[in-house]
Specification:
heterodimer, A: 456 residues, alpha/beta, 6 strands, elongated, B: 99 residues, 73% helix
Chain lengths: 456, 99
């Protein structure tokens, strides 16, 4: 009874904690509430009458806590997408193991609904585990970030999925078969890998969100296995959160979830008629000229993208903005929802660099500002500022909501080279009359800009 | 349908609605901490993992249980700590702290 009530309090604390995430001012206390809820749930479970031995539990708690704490303390903010991926994966892995143990514990007399929950828990948990690890590997560039495709890929995956369903159904109907359960788990792990490898790096915000949702659903199905409402409620909350983020990400790319998962976007560069063939030349600009342009502007909007994360340039961006503001320039930051590799990626990096959050503007709020802005400074962003998304129906990104950078009086694009962005699409922005290219590593260029500005 | 299952389904569906209500209010700038924080909450599987590891029914169940405890604890501790690390960086004004 006391244990059950503790779970109820824990679940309530989770909800209250998530509610406090509605504002950056209260968010930190919300996270603490959630952690308090978790502590309560763990303590309540430890006094549960079913627990006979603590030695192994303590070993597990110590190892897991130590590993988690080291990861959390040492991970770089630029590596946060991988970190979240790995955490999602471990959540899924734990659910799979719990469900498998329940199966082994109840060789006979298991109610049908528990059997179904076990099968679902193994399926979702294992797919989450291996899928998350592959996603993290892609983000860390341990494996290629490009979409990996091969003939009959979808057919193969569909057959594998059907096979998993058949095997799961057979397990439900038949007597005790630990060997088959192992095979089922292995097949589910394989499915997770195969589902994620055809998805390219730029689509990772969707994948990470979706896996986040799965990790929640895996927890909820484990709750059905154990008849534990705390797990069901928490799992449902996280599942809902992941689904909402997934929808926001898909909308921000103007693509359906099915297209992201099965479309193999970014497998190879796409040739778009009309965009490259007419021999236009992008004009570059020297650091000194760019410094003059920025230093004498009244308003500047900084548009960060994945390139800023790659070159870890967030601190240099802040430094440049400080110099500009000291000269009386109004500086804002425009954040596209899918800039970077996970939802909110750019915001975290800029917050790390001590940029006050009221200066970070969401797309809808900042887009009307561009035509009143002197300089838009694009740092390692590409597809999210490509006007072809508005104007060229032949473009693969046509219809995607973009930041209207091209409407600023002038545009400075910091970029390593003229290579097309992730979607492999040429960017019309680079050829506009009001656009100048500042080639080089973002951090390097920002440093030089700062020096030039100080000299002015 | 067993009554216990029905109640569980009720709880699940209602919690989904609560989740949607609460999460849609989270602003875009906090989406990364939302993911890591909610992820830590999904580490509630630790409850199941503890029960399995503590029952000591067979060597295999202990091994599976301990692995589950380790994974869930990484999820919980790593998730809450990294979320806290991120959230403490979000400030309204520049304070000249460590950049």
């Amino acid at each position: 009874m006391i244990v059950e009530l503790s779970y109820l309090i824990a679940a309530s604390l989770f909800i209250l904690g998530l509610r406090r995430l509605s504002s950056p001012a209260t968010a930190r206390s919300g996270n603490l509430l959630g952690a308090a809820g978790m502590l309560l749930a763990v303590l309540a479970t430890l006094v549960h009458q079913d627990i006979l031995s603590y030695s192994w539990i303590l070993v597990g708690i110590f190892l897991g806590s130590a590993a988690g704490a080291v990861l959390a303390r040492t991970v770089k903010m630029t590596a946060m997408p991988q970190m979240v991926g790995i955490l999602n994966g471990f959540g899924g892995g734990a659910s799979t193991l719990v469900a498998a143990s329940e199966y082994l514990r109840t060789p006979t007399g298991r109610p049908v609904d528990v059997s179904v929950s076990i099968a679902l828990s193994v399926l979702i948990g294992a797919v989450t585990f291996s899928g998350s690890m592959v996603a993290a590997g892609k983000l860390q560039e341990l494996i290629t970030g490009r979409a990996v495709t091969y003939p009959l890929q979808k057919t193969g995956n569909a057959l594998l999925f059907l096979g998993i369903l058949a095997l799961g159904g057979y397990l439900l109907g038949s007597s005790f078969h630990p060997g088959w359960l192992t095979l089922l788990t292995v097949l589910c792990l394989l499915l997770g890998v195969l589902l994620v490898i055809p998805i390219g790096g730029a689509d990772m915000p969707v994948v990470i969100s979706l896996l986040n949702s799965y990790s929640g659903l895996a927890g909820a199905t484990t709750g059905f296995v154990l008849h534990n409402n705390a797990l069901i409620i928490s799992g449902a909350l996280v599942g809902a959160s992941g689904i909402i983020l997934t929808r926001i990400m898909c909308k921000a790319m103007n693509r359906s979830l099915a297209n992201v998962i099965f479309g193999a976007f970014g497998a190879r560069p796409v040739a778009v008629a009309g965009a490259t063939a007419d021999g236009r030349v992008a004009r570059d600009i020297t650091v000194e000229d760019a410094a003059v342009l920025l230093g004498y502007a009244r308003s500047v909007i900084v548009v960060p993208g994945y390139g800023m994360a790659v070159s870890q340039a967030q601190h240099n961006v802040r430094e440049l903005a400080d110099l500009l503001e000291a000269r009386g320039v109004d500086v804002k930051y425009a954040i596209h929802p899918v800039a970077g590799r996970m939802p909110g990626h750019m915001n975290v990096l800029l917050a790390e660099a001590n940029v006050p959050y009221p200066k970070l503007y969401e797309m809808e709020r900042v887009n009307p500002e561009f035509e009143r802005t002197d300089v838009a400074l694009v740092i390692g962003a590409n597809d999210v500022v490509n006007p072809a998304a508005r104007s060229n129906p032949a473009s693969p990104i046509y219809g995607m909501p973009i930041l209207d950078v091209d409407r600023a009086r002038s545009v400075v694009v910091m970029k390593r080279s003229m290579n097309p962005g992730f979607a492999g699409i040429d960017n019309e922005l680079f050829y506009q009359d009001n656009t100048r290219m500042l080639f080089g590593d973002a951090r390097d260029s920002l440093g030089k800009l700062a020096v030039a500005l100080k000299a002015m | 349908m067993p009554e216990a299952l029905l109640v569980s389904i009720y709880v699940f569906v209602l919690a989904l609605f609560v989740g949607v209500e609460v999460i849609t209010k989270v602003p875009q700038i906090l989406h990364t901490p939302l993911m890591s924080g909610s992820n830590a909450i999904s580490g509630i599987t630790i409850v199941g993992a503890l029960l399995i590891a503590g029952r000591v029914e067979s060597p295999l169940s202990v091994v599976l249980g301990v692995f589950a405890v380790v994974q869930a604890m990484i999820n919980v501790v790593g998730g809450f700590l990294v979320t806290d690390r991120m959230l403490q960086m979000f400030k309204k004004k520049q304070d000249g702290g460590p950049a």
